Amino acid sequence: MSADLNTLSLADLMRLKAKGRLDIHELVAACDRRVRARESEVRAFEHYDFAAVENQIKALGPDILPLHGIPFGVKDIIDTRDMPTTWGSAIYADHYPARDAGIVATLRSAGGIVFGKTVSTEFAFLDPGKTRNPINLKHTPGGSSQGSAASVADAMVPFALGTQTAASVIRPAAFCGVVGYKASVGEFDLGGVGNLSQTMDSLGFFTRDAEDLVILRQALLGSPSDDAIPERKKWKIGFVKTAHWQQADKAYRELIEKMGEAFATDGHEWRVMTVGPDSTDLADAQVTVMAYEAARARMPEYRDRAAELSPNIKALIEQGLSIPLSRYQSARRLALKAREELKRALLEHDFLMTPSTTGEAPATLEQTGDPIFSRMWTVMGAPAITLPVGRGPAGLPLGIQLIGAVGEDGVLVQHAVELQEYLRSRA
Amino acid sequence: MSADLNTLSLADLMRLKAKGRLDIHELVAACDRRVRARESEVRAFEHYDFAAVENQIKALGPDILPLHGIPFGVKDIIDTRDMPTTWGSAIYADHYPARDAGIVATLRSAGGIVFGKTVSTEFAFLDPGKTRNPINLKHTPGGSSQGSAASVADAMVPFALGTQTAASVIRPAAFCGVVGYKASVGEFDLGGVGNLSQTMDSLGFFTRDAEDLVILRQALLGSPSDDAIPERKKWKIGFVKTAHWQQADKAYRELIEKMGEAFATDGHEWRVMTVGPDSTDLADAQVTVMAYEAARARMPEYRDRAAELSPNIKALIEQGLSIPLSRYQSARRLALKAREELKRALLEHDFLMTPSTTGEAPATLEQTGDPIFSRMWTVMGAPAITLPVGRGPAGLPLGIQLIGAVGEDGVLVQHAVELQEYLRSRA
Hints:
2 copies of one chain form a homodimer.
Chain A: H1 10-18, H2 24-42, E1 45-47, H3 50-59, E2 71-75, H4 102-109, E3 113-118, H5 146-153, E4 159-164, H6 170-176, E5 179-182, E6 202-207, H7 211-221, E7 236-240, H8 250-265, E8 269-273, H9 279-297, H10 299-304, H11 311-322, H12 325-348, E9 351-355, H13 372-380, E10 384-391, E11 397-403, H14 409-426
Parallel strand pairs in A: 2-3, 2-4, 7-8, 7-9
Antiparallel strand pairs in A: 1-3, 4-6, 5-6, 5-10, 9-11, 10-11
């Protein structure tokens, strides 16, 4: 069985561990075999060195920690003291940070093993890295957390860390056919995590099972109180098409509409609804806020190393510097207004549902796909989870996005677990 | 006149510059003379090297930037690529970050000169650094941004950067008799700024004139739209005593009450009021949130360098790890509820007023004073400004704290400028 350990979800690994049948040496060996077999094609890692993994395993204490010996991938804009952290930029090709990011140290304290650094687009913005979609190598894995999505999808690691400022978790997770969880703004410590926007940057997790998110949140944040777990058997789902619905592929729209009909047939409420200000205005607000804030966040490189920046990131910074304060503030106020309306909508619905992407991953490695179905939620700071819901006409994965109220991540994760069960039972 | 250039406020320097009469070489020379005369007593700097200042001056382009050649102090938990950044800890005594913090790069892009790194308490928490109060060397300058407050108070630099997670800007500014501005959470980029709490860390500025804050905000964020500037001649001031009022020194309470009477006499409204949940609960919530989040933020050092941490910071981390998620979440919810009530209160008042500290700086260098009058506003994420309002019985400075709505920093700064004018005209 050990040959397949790399394919198990974190939840499965925990069940094996509970039975005393998880050998962590076999686990990391299986993951290493998978990397060696596939990395030349998938190209998920910016830095990978199995000796570093073995060293961490050797340094582990007794098996008393929740994630004892569990390997995970770390997006390469997240600091690690023992592996380079390049932020997807040649500027930092050889950069070893002085300390781990808080989230990395916390996972290590829980027994986790940093398996390698996964490819990020340049500064978690547009310029793709080398990663290919493991389902079809001619297609983009999405971005910016592309190596994390691909490494989890290709069974190289059970989970991986990413970040999102526009669609950088939800999009690559959906394109690669895995679970992606983009946390609420403020939900996790971001010390040592490459920054782009002080009001939108969020941590993200890629897994192969929604249940894994419960395990990870518990290891990082502590156990939720029991009252956080909803017991509802019938959902009230708010289905938000947004003004961009027609930009989604026809086959994908049909899949979602069919899913909605099935919900209704099974006695769940499935209401087409809108949230907050016009979704086009909200998506525009996200663009404005990102450019304005990224200009300040990337000023260190723009000022000192401009020649080594891509035209895309330079254009973003210059766009941001040209945005008047009043326009930025209007965009922020719109986002905060929408956040309040989202909160109200979630008093009446268990969760909202909306497309994860415009459809399957495009057949290109030159760009990472359209972020349009994430922008409005990201500017609100909302938690989002994408679950795989099958394949499209080109044979690539499709996802469905769940949205919760800001700060209510635990509830959203619980709904995602139940929805995953429902979707699997229907498949 | 050049001997006194170091004593001028940023606003005065800008006026001199507008007349073509500011010689930046004379300015930095005057600041250097002041440091050499006083640093052995005040001990404001963790790192100071005039050659590095001269190098920055030499590298300046033509005088077209708003802060061309203006020196400023940088709290030593804020990254600088050309000067060590120790975070007030022996762990990072020789640490040179790979890049400037975003805020430092942005100020440099505006023409500013990093004059030196100012002393911080260990990781911006409790353990005092070496700095003494320039008004009376036997007294604490406050903390955590102690070197920034002292360097500005002692005319070594016109302004300095700090951070606040409890009272780390307002308290040292009040104790040293300068203007302190603690920004709203989310107002400025915090990339490369030492972190302690993902929901409370805020940037701060120390100046000798409230007008300087307008200049700095403009250089960093762009010009505010005209409608942001209130034209009111008579204020509606909400005076928040809080449940901790009796912890303030009697003389200080009397000074504030007298100020309130004067406002009323002059036709301003001065209403004693409360905001949000009980202020004791809010202060407790700040303690809970700080410990819980700091435990995750400082996990890199706790995991890898525990022997080099102070007992205070270790106790904070261990306290934080023992806090159940449910208690942390309750504290956060209380804070967000209070934030909403603060917003409503500021629809009916121009600004709120509350003590900056419990009184004058205590006669000790072993601790940095009581943060109680800042905790509740910090956990809400609110902007706060302290203005000097005279001296107490021991001859040390006292401040008065102005509070605004979250994200409405520009309005609060404008009120602070007007209030400063009012207070000066009455002095």
